Sequence to fold (149 residues):
Amino acid sequence: MKILLVASDGGHLAQLLPLDDWWGRHDRHWVTFRKPDAVAALEGEQVTWAYHPTTRNLPNALRNLGLAVQTLRRLRPDVVVSTGAGVSLPFFVVARFLRIRTVYIEVFDRVDSPTLTGRLSYPISDAMCSQWPQQRAIYPEAVLIGPTL
Fold:
């Protein structure tokens, strides 16, 4: 299986890293921001560096949309997995058009309210995962996976 893991740096990336028992068995590629924590955490991994910042930055949102088209066409992963934030949305939109499956994992620290990226990704995700039972009130079809940290 080929996996594309997409996440902002910091806590979003930190919540995907502990899933290495799963993603470590597969052909994988990462998309994140070239920040010191991400560079260190993903040393030796295949990484595409996305454009930062994404919040309220239309030029970078468009650049990341183009990056998503280019990256998804080149890699043709079986699934795109993300914990957010803004960098993941262009990849989910393009994956939907290319009929590539998507899995969104709502973040650990938003127990009783949705993240913006979670709200936008939920309708276009093939699977939504929650880390807390309370998150299923927001995302009724979510699969409870428990905390990743």
Notes: The mean pLDDT is 96. The longest helix spans residues 58-75. Residues 2-105 form a domain with the Rossmann fold fold (CATH 3.40.50.2000). The chain has six helices and seven strands.
